[in-house]
Write the structure tokens for this entry.
Amino acid sequence: MASSSFGRRLVACLLNVSEARRKDLVETVARAALYNNKGVTREGITVLNIFNDRDYNRSVITIVASIDSIGEAVLSACEKACGLIDMGAHKGVHPCMGAVDLVPFYPLGEEVGVEDCAKEARAVAQGLTERVQGTSAFLFGWADSPLQRGLAQRRKEMGWFKKTPDLQAIRPDMGPQPQKPFGLTGVGAGPYVMNCNVTIDTQDMAMGRSIAAALRESTPGGLPGVQVLALPHEGAVEIACNVESMKGSPTSETTAGEPWPCFSIGGQPYCHVPASLITARVAELAGREGVGVKGTALVGFTPHECRGLAEFALSQRIAEFWKEQGRIRM
């Protein structure tokens, strides 16, 4: 990948908001990252992609900017989302707890470390609870200092996986007791996390949960760095995977002959399981039950794609790049 001077300081935020059925509202949230309240363009910021899922009623907005300007852009988008999305009226099959449900920061450039992103994440969490009275947040990953608890652990602690979370039992890291309409927002930082969803041609949720369990990193023989949920989706079952990047280079024992994408943070190598391997493993497990795979969707980009497209968009001064891209990436 060609590198540029501004590319060396880039950071991505994959902002997860609890709305997808009103696409104009989601685009309004995205534009709040790009323009100030007077409509003036914020320099050096682009929104690469907006991934909407109607069944989940959840959208992921990929915001990229330099470490020096990402915080205000993301905070403005969060503030706008909190003013437009009411968790008291939200319906969707994907677990969620907040109007702004997740705010993860990932370093893309060589001159930005995970610690820099963690500092920005903590500032955004504090800024949100100060600007929007009634909002609350929990921290995860490198932003959760000094414990650095992972997202899955923190979500479990907060009751995120429960069908009806008990807001009164939650102790947020910042802000008051969670309350509707805002709910609870997770803010954190770490090496890039890719989202890969594989749909299997069945409505059998028990089968989906069995496949999800077999894929998880915590299961013997599971895929490293992969966290999985099985969810009903458009008349089928979706195996929804968070694919965490791991420090170090892949070994022949872990790759199973499949090339793993690699990148570096602060000169240290990182790698992640490729989407093709996840799809193949799901196809194998589902195939044993006589069920086929309908398709695979990447929510956004791989780390390499994210940086490459961001460098192009910023060099061409394309703020609303999701329009130029013209399609949801599948």
